[in-house]
Description:
It comes from Paenibacillus solanacearum. By secondary structure, the chain is of the alpha+beta class. About 25% of the residues lie in helices and about 30% in strands. It is globular. About 40% of the residues are buried.
Amino acid sequence: MRRFTWVVALVMVCLSVVVSGCGLSRKDAGSVVKELDGTMSKLSSYHGIGQMTLKTGQEPQEYAVEVCFQAPSYYRISLTNAKKDITQIVLRNDDGVFVLTPHLNKSFRFQSDWPENQGQAYLYQSLAQSIIMDNERQFVSDEKAYIFDVVANYQNGSLARQKVWLDKKNLAPQHVEVSDQNANVMMVVNFDKFEFGTKFDKDYFDMQRNMTSWNLKSLPTMAQGSGAASAAGTHDTTHSNESTKGAAASAGTGKEAAAGNGADKNNGAAASTDNKSTANTGSGSNGAASSSNGAAANGGSTNGATSGNTSAANGSAAAPGTNKGTTAGAGTDAQKQQSFGIIEPRYMPTGVKKQDVTEIKLGEDKGVMLRYSGKYSYTLTESRPQAQTVSLLPGDIMDLGFTLGVVTGDAKKTLTWTYDGVEFRLSTGDLPPEEMIKVAQAVQGEMGK
């Protein structure tokens, strides 16, 4: 009997140890937030790959997303619409914030502290801060992730809350769902890979490298670091460095030949861009388009950003036998710029109807202007600029989900953005910012149809 009692006591002690151990391993929201705050304080770099789905229009828009960060403030975000074969790159470096459309050799430059003043559902800092700052956060966990339900702090006021899945092993983001006030999921970001401590090439965040090397599978890539990069990635990095350096050497221009790299920094305003194409494309040297005194080629339209045409051959080696391909590509782009049709957004705010459509002239470029009236009044101007258009007016960046736009003006505001070579200007005196975003996203959903 005494032996039986001893065995029972031993079993009870073992069970209590197991139960207490399980309790210690089950973290509450406070301990996870404290750990997340520590991760943020020592964040040096990261690289994530995934998909983003926007459900703001009649049809979901899907994008492949690649996001890279290097402390203190270098960012590179690549957004690719595979269905339409369109890639745009948002870049931040010491020269400012750039929106690049490499396959059309287009670049817009902003002077902004983006993304510090705006949240982005695909940026780790935005997700972490939304969790840390929400004292009324909701918290649950499953086998592999901590799940937070918090207030969404985004520029688009219609986005109210978000759920964030963080990997239990290292607090890396796995999945994000952003909802509106009616709990409808409007945006989903799903990460296939997310790694901390990534080592990037020295020129990884350079504007010219991203413009000239966007279509090479090995570019841009990361150098091997912290065991994150694979052997294949290391090989690609070496190849990319040789290609980039060789391209610059062959052109004989280096960084000085980079479109927009000759731009001076202007405090609070976008600087002018001086593009000079010197590569032999069979058509001689292209004249540089520049701006002075803030005079825009579009007849004074408030653009709020510096835009420029960067030659595909600029800063890259023009190997024998490649001129025909370059010229043919330029011809195709030129033909595409001549005509694009009218792109009408299906979405209109309640109480608004289309008034008329007018053909207009913006400098040397043809365009169309759609007018809407009713509860809100606004115009939507569409054009394909063939020449460089520069505006030195300061503006505020607006996140449209699929790209960045710039808002200028006070009483009457103009939202300007480009996509696949088409420049859009949405001008209004009373349309709320969240409605401006919805119209822009509806326009993008109609492109390529």
